[in-house]
Write a structure and sequence with these properties.
The protein has 24 helices and 11 strands. The protein is α/β, with parallel strands linked by helices.
Length: 621
Amino acid sequence: MASKSCRVWTGCFVNKVALLIAVSEYRFGFESLMAAVKDVEAVKGALQHERIAGFETANISTMVNPGPQAMREAIALLFANRAKDDLILLYFSGHGLTDDRGSFYLATPSTKRDLPQATAIDASYIHGLMENSRSKRQVVILDCCFSGAFGKGMAAKGKATNIAGQLSGQGRAVLTSSSSTEYSFEQKGADLSVYTQYLVEGLRTGAADLDGDGLISIDELHEYTKQKVKEASPAMDPKIYLVEQGYKISLAKAPTDDPRLNYRRMVTQYANQGEISFVARNILNEQLQRLNLDRETAQTIESQVLHPYREYRAKLQRFEHVVNEELRRNRVIDKKTYREIKNYQRVLGLRDQDVAKVESLLEKRLIEDAEKQASFWDALSGKASLRIVAACSVVFTALIVIGFIWYLPLNETSEGSSNTGVIEYQLFDATALGEQLLSQSDSIFKQSSGLGSRYLQDGIAAYEEQDYESAIAVLKQAISLNNQSGEAFQYLGNAYLAVDRCQQALENLNQAVNLFSSQSDAQTHLLVSKGRCFLKLEQYGDAVEAFQNALGRGISDPWIVKTYLGEAYLEQGELAAADRYCREAAADRPDYQPAIKCLEKVEETGGSPGSFQLPNFLPGQ
């Protein structure tokens, strides 16, 4: 039976069915998420409102803290036995996690990090249900950490479709609160999570109707929510993943003649970084009278529009206060405290450029305190210092020897004896001491690289723990103390790559290439990392060249590189080459899932680019 809302607006469906899941409580190591339950309530309120989304109340199911089996069954029922024109919506608020292979999971109350396949919901399970469903209109909204990893498993069936001129959207759309490497955040003192707050705001107020046609499409909802989220938490980067015409699915209505919505759009237009100028204020006052709105309503609208900017400033102030207080309380800022401060920055959703001024003071103190704590030999570990010490030793011993040379002949005359043998031995011994110090200076420098070495080891540890932002911060300090460390540049490049900052990754990887010019194995792994950068930058010709060169040099895990190469050829439309390398990868390692997925994708026609997740390629792997 058709939804009642189909009688009052276009973009209708035979049925509109939603499953909303909140997981707020966890038993095995995950933090509780108090906002998750309220997130679901807020989304339900927007969906069932007849003048907004028009979902029948009976067609909206909610689950709070379900077990893994109950959650799997509910999701399966959502997609099963649907008509072609049904609209299906799955919403999840909770924790997300990835495993070592990059596979993404939705966490349940009983999820264990080391057993995600058995205790969590694998994204591939949901992908399968979506592909097998008859519904051509499917929407998934994920408000959880690393949720962007879900979209990378999407694939399209059949040939690519020309969408020009089509009026209604068909396909699949996935909206995520973060990328595949990012965390999502709850707001301090807020009822809803950052992402869901602005998602619901866009629906309820109609502000997500960006083109003013009276309908809120999926791509408009994403653009509105993303803009607001980044105003409040710049480090968050909501994503959208689409198959076929998923972006044109109309999810809700918006009023076209509501004076409140019109005033909201004007405030959005004139607001500048959370402030309204004197001239803009007078323009808004005139419009307020024209729209016949009272001052209280206007202030409420302005407060909502300006809230993300004000929230951002408040977070920045909290961060500055915490750092300044830490500097006041403790003269020594060790590496552990530094990493905690970087984690606090991440929790607040602030980028490095947002806190650059505070960061520079912090890094200066960190270096100063570390240098004060360094031992005497650490302070003399530089080549120049050792050479000065060695040279002084040579000069000093030479002066002693010269003294003996002048003294002993006088002694010879008086006693008539010869001590030439003794003189030769003493001269040889003194010279050897100086030469030994000079020859050992390089080896001592390598064995005791002081502060730079300690930062490098901490940075590598953070990288291997997948704490990439901390790894970046610490490895930059290592390079500032020793800019000849190829290993530091290599890990820094891979850390940038892991968080999709590919240009910075390439810069550091190229530095590592120059420093590792004589080390074949390191050069090979660097080629693979550079190839992955080119893939993400959609420079597929460069990616193919890098991966081919890596294979030509020989590598311990060729199936990984062949899978990357297969994807690069696939993106170029060279299906025969893609098929060849993906098959070779699967033959080299039959249980390697990315290679199998690559083959499946090659066999499909018109598949969307970059739709499967490949593992991070660690330096030296």
